């Protein structure tokens, strides 16, 4: 009997091998084609769904129009053709005409319409002959005026400033008198104050500790590289600085990727999916000289494996071929308040390599696997306060110190967890009245009301990397409660385990629930929930102070290692739609109680993770599971006790 999951494992795009420039162009066109049925008569608005956002419906329909042109513009810039291009040309004509019923509306301060100006400016800069030149003179004037409005409007002090830079860049490339050179230079000078070294930029001014994918593929790094290509003659010194930043940044960023082309899911805007790989394409677009061990074959592999992965995820697409809102499947639970059905087409940034000629080394090089020199490594990244590792075939990061500086839905889950994985994703809460709805993977959840409600780490304080060995941080969930945490990466002798140590001092009685990685929780043959199993067969194990789950996705587990551990291991069946990667998951969890006391409560936790894709790297994962106590670096714990105090 074949596995149930095989019945619907193909997408409309699965037959595309995505190996060549022509393959990538076909994938783009196949994504653009279904949009025609959702496009307004005048082409200016694309309506892909009826969901709520913090901005108006017209802005959401503008998103549906503008974001696909990241890909269309690149295709046209590289000499490609698309029969539906006229839809977008007509859309520019009608969307910027104040007399048209499809008018997008003028921009106000901090308007969502500003975001879409980035794609429009890029399009004018790289595809002027196919998009701008066909417009009537009146339409050109309207488009200039509409874009230029933002030069006098207030913008958020974040990566958004790049959107105004690209609006002006586009105006400059079409010779518009509405181009504001002084405004663009002032924005660029201010954006440079976000730079903190080693290639990294914050998503905001000093005091912001948000260094997620907006600092790279989604916005800042991509924008810097595109600018360095398009403004080389006008601004050579700044352009070279941007390329230098990318050369430094890539040495860290490559550690966020696994051998299968998956990045570590972390932070907000996961609905943008393969926009994460647009940085690799932007390196090629900007002709950046690559540092060893990276080659154009390696970069090509990193990007195409990622796009290939997403082309083969059934849950990423609606039946008509349009993208769903979610990550690996339709999931409104994980979205932010700025995610409309059109927002997801930000992923079209990853088609930037279509702007390159066939003779570019990105396309002439043979695709190479993940660099051998970077396998089995652990790296301490001081700027994002991350420790990345792929020891044992599992690519994940340990995190302390990041948090969103403004209200974002489920920010504790998106930034505050201890670990984030490329294979297992992360979970977000569907509520906080039960552990099953909490989505508490890789957290220490605490309750001071007998388990009625739960708190997870959101605002991390005093985070630092200590001696190149571990992450240390503080968390203050309530007055009179302090939690100090050390996160210790895997050791070579126990590559499937990482260690967490928590010191809790509390003036009130607490309950705790610490989760490991969440795992696909169904049986392979019949799709039913996992059943108990104590061996290597798929199933769950609950034994004293440890819990484990095994399925076709891999093996995850957790164990209490404190000498007098009274925590109890449970394999919790989580609420559906909490995890980004799998809609039904099981979460190994340790549950304990802690009295109010002036003395410290010490928790020592071993967390086990092995994706099924790495099974072949280990003779027996069960042996790795059983040897935890002998090989975990508990000597480090003793040094923590001796060297650290509140």
Please describe what this structure looks like.
By secondary structure, the protein is α+β, with helices and mostly antiparallel strands. The chain folds into two domains: 4-373, Glycosyltransferase; 376-643, Beta-galactosidase, Chain A, domain 5 (Distorted Sandwich), CATH 2.70.98. 28% of the residues lie in helices and 18% in strands. The protein is built from 19 helices and 19 strands. A hairpin with a 2-residue loop joins strand 9 and strand 10. Helix 10 (220-230) packs antiparallel against helix 11 (236-253), helix 10 runs parallel beside helix 12 (278-285) and helix 12 runs antiparallel to helix 13. The longest helix is centred in the middle third of the chain and has 18 residues, at 236-253. It is globular.
Helix/strand class: alpha+beta
Please identify, by name, the CATH architecture of the largest domain: Alpha/alpha barrel
CATH fold-level label of the largest domain: Glycosyltransferase
Q: How many distinct beta strands? A: 19
CATH hierarchy class name of the largest domain: Mainly Alpha
Number of individual domains: 2
Helix content percent band = 25-40%
Q: What is the arithmetic mean of pLDDT?
A: 94
Q: Would you identify the regions where 5 or more consecutive residues have pLDDT less than 50?
A: none
Distance between the termini: 58 Å
Number of helices: 19
Query: Numbering strands along the chain, what is their spatial order in the largest sheet?
Result: 8-9-10-11-19-16-15-14
Radius of gyration: 25 Å
